[in-house]
Amino acid sequence: MRRHRNVKIVATLGPASETYETIKALHEAGADVFRLNMSHGTHDSIREKHEIIRKLEADLDSPIAILADLQGPKLRVGEFANGEEELVEGASFRMDLDDKPGTVDRVNLPHPEIFQALEPGATLLVNDGKIRLKVKSCGPEFADTEVITGGTISNRKGVNVPDVVLPLAALTDKDREDLEFACSLGVDWLALSFVQRPRDVIEASALVRDRAAIMVKIEKPAAVTDFDAILEEVDGIMVARGDLGVELPVQNVPPLQKRMVRKCRAAAKPVIVATQMLESMIESPMPTRAEVSDVATAIYEGADAIMLSAESAAGDYPVEAVTTMDNVAREVESDPTYREVIEASRRAERMSVADGIVAAAREIAETTDIKVICCFTQSGTTALLTARERPRVPIIGMTNMRDTARRLALTWGVNCVMTPQLTRFKMAVVNAAKAARNLGYAEENDQIVVTAGVPFNVPGTTNILRVAPCEESLIYSSDPE
Length: 481
Fold this sequence. Notes:
This protein is an alpha/beta fold. The chain has helices at residues 20-29, 43-60, 112-117, 173-185, 198-208, 221-225, 227-233, 241-247, 253-266, 289-301, 310-313, 318-333, 336-344, 353-367, 381-388, 402-407, 425-438, 472-478, and strands at residues 8-13, 33-37, 65-69, 84-87, 92-96, 106-108, 123-126, 131-139, 142-149, 151-154, 159-160, 189-192, 213-218, 236-240, 271-274, 305-308, 370-376, 395-399, 414-418, 447-453, 462-469. Residues 5-322 form the Pyruvate kinase barrel domain.
């Protein structure tokens, strides 16, 4: 399905969007990727949504990516005798391993690994940072704290520990079960939560065994510190601004977002900007002006995708939320300032023949009357490198690999077309010209750029660039075999 924008839209599915009709409406409104949140719903309900998406994909003959998002370890306090208590600034409060019901003075925190890592002066955040505690003293089974910011603490509220790297694996037993289930279904992307260091990704990769592309959610300060090393190990990044904004001062998040987006683009790896993008549309058919500006900022930065969470999963206006994102994206990308910003942030990467080929393809397309760049790709790397250039003309990813086409649905500007397995370059050019015409990017009297690798069907061999006519008779009469 041709999109009239380059940035992609990720829509989370949930109670508000679990029927074929609604999911189809979301896709037609602009959703390119569907996120299945493994924190919510049973395996049966996840399987049902997966089957609906694959049926929709077949019905529309349009590659759709599915992203399964693992829950990760959730740190929560125990329960209170009264259900909740009010913590007052300056008061003392203990967290410990005692499973007795909590009081105004203490509560169970059933995570011994936290106490093992804590040191005096560390900060504990409760209920998305609304309550802030400072550790005064601690041991293997307790932490005595001072209430710095008070508030209501109640049963099972989440705890964040921003100051220390916790000795926790990124994958819980539940995550391992969910990972295997999602991979057996055939999801395209797998998102890892609570990643703190590169070895968390390496451990997950060993379990995934190339059955899905791996995305890391950056939501911990430790992951920010080790971002470059983590980026080397993954296929994509999600800037998860929710927990990141809890564990770091909120004013730190926008510059971090910009730096991470640019680093991902330089590495030719897709990056999603997520969390609270159109939060008010959970209950309102119209977004706030600030939310629209936030979405626009991510697009101006060159993010590959922008994501809806509760807006499409549990909100009252899921289709309207996707439509709003689509409208904002079209408007931003038609702004001359957008091209200025995108091109000013382009970094020259000249490390391989493929790098040179895709850079030349962009330059040729932008300095002549070329309508589209068609790149043949097996693994998706050539399309990713082409997208890194952020060309002014559309990109068609040509592949005979269904998995590759689906994964590329997350990548900026790439529209994938399935091709038969080809062995001759001339037939590749013919197929590219046909795709450009069928998608409405070019007419018979136009020209296109084709990139490919010879021999065909071997990943990583991009070595040919051809400026070709769209008229098939001219291709047959002029192109080499």
